[in-house]
Design goal:
CATH superfamily: MFS general substrate transporter like domains
Largest sheet: none
Radius of gyration: 19 Å
CATH class: Mainly Alpha
Oligomer: single chain
Number of strands: 0
Length: about 400
């Protein structure tokens, strides 16, 4: 997994920074609420606007990248993130930040879905190794994001936004320097390809399951800073521990479990454990030590589920991987967008523990969806290594050095 080309490492590095944007605002949500006079619900919309636009834009990213190429798509995505992260840092109202986070989400969509296809197409060691590398970048980014957000947020809530813009600029330079020109033009993808892809029973089953799973994921990530009632730096450390656990299990534990038990059984078990974890948080929402332990433990389950779901999607169909990746990501990000929007409203109406109950129920629904569609996804436990050298060239602009 670690013997990769410079191009793959450049994309992986930029992916780390892109995924930092997901958890970056976590430690500064209370500070933004206090400094800008925003309600808890308004602050949580920073996640919703970002994830909703990311999900919607994902439906069209494969169409864009097939026409202008992977490298240009990655660079446009990075440029948008740089601009909107900087604008968010310079804003003086929560409404403006919510809007700029939406623009940030557009850039994120262009980058993330293309980065996954690029890494899968160019990485050494087969599809599963490439996905583990991608999930490692995701886990590291999600871990470092809250830590950086906490450190810079301790100075000012503006710091994390400006810091992301600077780091993304470094990633931009890396892509420009290390990602070569494609050997051949990519085959154009129709603008409705991702919509048609969702007709595939396996992809639709996994996408809907991921939608409900992501609802639980982002209840834990986005809402937890409020009942914890900690400072920015302390929140950063808590979610750094969460992200490290996620990264470790996604890279090292997920492959061991899937080889031994198969992907479907692992998904059922990890989702059930995550649901129990969220239920414990709901029961003891006033106990800060319990919340901290459950957040970190939840990261262990999330890391496994992330990797296994992504592997399953990449191996579930014979669709072009950029199309499958875009369609799946579009559906799952909608779940992530809905969770913060509901969390603030439900907490205000039914108490601090209510969002965790809702998250636990959503993850259980994911299990039910997988069980209903188990025939459609029965083949995900077989080992598929379908990426040919020719396909890798089409999917990426990576050089072979």
């Amino acid at each position: 997994m670690f013997k990769q080309s410079r191009a793959v490492w450049a994309v992986a590095f930029a992916s780390v920074i892109a995924f930092m944007g997901i958890g970056l605002v976590d430690p500064i949500l209370p500070a933004i609420s206090a400094d800008l006079g925003a309600t808890q619900t308004q602050a949580l919309l920073l996640f919703t606007s970002y994830l909703f636009i990311t999900g919607i834009a994902m439906l069209f990213t494969s169409w864009v990248s097939s026409r202008i190429g992977a490298k240009k798509t990655l660079l446009i995505g990075l440029a948008l993130i740089i601009v909107f992260a900087a604008l968010a840092g310079a804003s003086n109202s929560v409404e403006a930040i919510i809007g700029f986070r939406a623009g940030w989400g557009l850039g994120n969509a262009l980058f993330i879905s293309t980065a996954l296809a690029t890494i899968v197409g160019a990485a050494s060691g087969g599809v599963d190794s490439a996905i583990i590398l991608y999930e490692a970048a995701l886990g590291l980014g999600i871990a470092v994001g809250p830590l950086l957000g906490g450190l810079l947020g301790g100075i000012s809530w503006r710091g994390p936004f400006i810091g992301t813009a600077v780091l993304m600029a470094i990633g931009f330079i890396g892509i420009v320097a290390l990602l070569g020109k494609p050997a051949a033009k990519p085959e154009p993808v129709g603008i409705t390809s991702t919509f048609r892809a969702l007709r595939n029973p396996a992809l639709l089953t996994l996408g809907i399951a991921a939608l409900f799973y992501n609802f639980g994921f982002f209840i834990l990530l986005a809402y937890s800073p409020f009942p914890l009632e900690l400072g920015a730096q302390q929140l950063g450390l808590v979610f750094f521990g969460w992200g490290i656990g996620l990264a470790i299990t996604s890279v090292f534990v997920a492959p061991i479990l899937t080889r031994r038990f198969g992907r479907q059984k692992v998904l059922y078990a990890m989702m059930l454990l995550l649901s129990v974890d969220l239920a414990v948080m709901a029961l003891d929402v006033a106990a800060r030590p319990v919340l901290i332990v459950c957040i970190v433990v939840g990261g262990l389950f999330l890391g496994v589920v992330n990797t296994v779901l992504t592997e399953s999607v990449m191996n579930a169909t014979d669709l072009p991987r950029p199309v499958a990746s875009s369609a799946y990501s579009a559906v799952r990000f909608v779940g992530g967008a809905l969770a913060p929007a509901f969390a603030g409203v439900i907490a205000a109406a039914a108490g601090a523990g209510a969002p965790y109950w809702l998250g636990a129920a959503a993850v259980l629904v994911s299990i039910v969806v997988l069980l209903i569609g188990r025939r459609a996804i029965a083949h995900i436990d077989a080992d598929h290594e379908l990426v040919s050298a020719e396909e890798a060239t089409v999917l990426t602009a990576a050089d072979a050095s």
